[in-house]
Amino acid sequence: MPSAHTPRALLIGAGVAGPATALFLSRAGWEVEVFEAGAAPDPYQGLFLNVATNGLAVLEQLGLRERLLTDAHRASRMVMRSGTGRVLGEVPNGPAGDPERGSVIVRRGWLHQVVRDGAVAAGIPFAFGSRLTAIEETPTGVRARFADGRTAEGDILVGADGIHSLTRRWIDPAAPAPRYSGLVGTGGIARIAGLEPTPDSQHFVFGARSFFGYLVREEGTAYWFANLTKSEPPRGSLAGIAGGEWLRELRDLHSDDPAPVPQILSGTHGELSGYPIYDLSGVRRWSRGRVVAVGDAVHATSPSTGQGASLALEDAITLARCVRDLPDHASAFAQYQAVRAPRAEAVVRYARRIDSQKRVTKSRLGIAIRDWMMPRFLRNAADDTRNDWLYNHEIPWQHPAA
Ligand SMILES: Cc1cc2nc3c(=O)[nH]c(=O)nc-3n(C[C@H](O)[C@H](O)[C@H](O)COP(=O)(O)OP(=O)(O)OC[C@H]3O[C@@H](n4cnc5c(N)ncnc54)[C@H](O)[C@@H]3O)c2cc1C
């Protein structure tokens, strides 16, 4: 963008999308600042997530991939089992036949820290405790207002403020709201004696009454989650449920499941919380004037695809490339949405199909049919290229956006 002054971008949200976009914009010559509602980084918020091959490719271009991998569980395979313990099949968690380029599981807080540290090292300032409350256009730019009365001004504002985004609503008050998936997630990270490590893999169990996923790292720490089929809980209501209550329900739901599911649950103690799983699709406007949104703010997939963080990273590099190469913010934002929306929508649709398998609505007969069908469907899964479109998606920074 030709300009007499150094252009300035306000980034709202210090999850993945905000700091990554800030880093790429700064590389494109922009002055940037990141504003985050949380009072301080929270290393334990959100459990763990999959950073897929395509997300790792973006981190590589930021020079952050190797650091992330210093505390990651490589999981190039996903192993599916029935509630009776029978292996239903395996699915590559990355490009088929290329386990070296497989995806990894990391603590969500670690991913945030790696990207944030990269941004801090590049001289990007972070303002924690800054909750965006209003956006105003000015004759020459955009102004952000924060809950504590402060304001900030820039040439553009990038909303990376997650699935309940205020930016999205400012861009289009009629934008669709997040959609409840029918599942409540919960999980934990625990050291449990006697568990066998699950090198290079993550495991999933289609329990008769709830869906369970786990991995055991080489040093013995188990990362686990459960997806419980429930009607939508009123907003905030799950916060009142104590950890012990979740554990009682989970131990009951998974009591018939194969090892090590009951062992993981009986060895888990302490705090546990549950969160309703939402997704978001069909957002028609990703920008308005000088304001644009990235990541979960404009498209959110349920965790079932393991693509939420990776799509956010792809948005970051794509938006910054468009801003760098196109003549003004309007054409940059339009090009960014045109490139990103079809892919993001396809991933959300794919996740919805997986969610429908996780919801426990099936009769005994339905479960038997699923357990009979799945091995046939997954028979050649190690070489199955059907999901390569998810992973083989490279966005080279040096290539022009147009
Ligand atoms: C608590 C939690 C747990 C999650 N767990 C998983 C998981 O287990 N597996 C998985 O695949 N995905 C998970 N996700 C989703 C995953 O983190 C996202 O899909 C992905 O990281 C996209 O990141 P993002 O930067 O777009 O949004 P987010 O990571 O949601 O970041 C948005 C940031 O914006 C901040 N913010 C929001 N509103 C304002 C405001 N008004 N002003 C300033 N800042 C604001 C938020 O505090 C947050 O830090 C989780 C998300 C959350 C919120």
Describe this structure in words.
α2 (53-61) crosses α8. The chain has helices at 17-27, 53-61, 65-69, 108-121, 166-171, 243-253, 261-266, 308-325, 329-358, 364-377, 388-391, and strands at residues 8-12, 31-35, 48-51, 73-74, 77-82, 87-92, 104-107, 126-127, 132-137, 142-146, 151-154, 156-159, 179-191, 201-206, 211-216, 221-229, 274-279, 287-288, 291-293. The model has no long low-confidence stretch (mean pLDDT 92). The relative contact order is 0.18. The chain is globular and about 65 Å long. It is 32% helix and 24% strand. The two termini are 14 Å apart. It has 11 helices and 19 strands. It has 402 residues and is of the alpha/beta class. β9 (132-137) and β10 (142-146) form a beta hairpin. It has a domain at 8-53 and 66-74 and 111-178 and 280-364: FAD/NAD(P)-binding domain (3-Layer(bba) Sandwich). Strands 6-5-14-15-16-13-17 form a 7-stranded mixed sheet. Flavin-adenine dinucleotide binds at residues 12-18, 35-38, 45-50, 108, 130-132, 160-162, 166, 295-297, 303, 306, 308-309, 312.
Q: Can you describe this structure in just a few lines?
A:
With 402 residues, the chain is α/β, with parallel strands linked by helices.
Number of helices: 11
Q: Write down how many β-strands occur, each being a DSSP E stretch of 2 or more residues.
A: 19
Please name the CATH architecture of the domain at 8-53 and 66-74 and 111-178 and 280-364: 3-Layer(bba) Sandwich
Backbone shape: globular
Radius of gyration: 21 Å
| CATH-assigned fold name of the domain at 8-53 and 66-74 and 111-178 and 280-364 | FAD/NAD(P)-binding domain
The chain-level mean pLDDT equals 92
Largest sheet: 7 strands, mixed
* Helix percent band: 25-40%
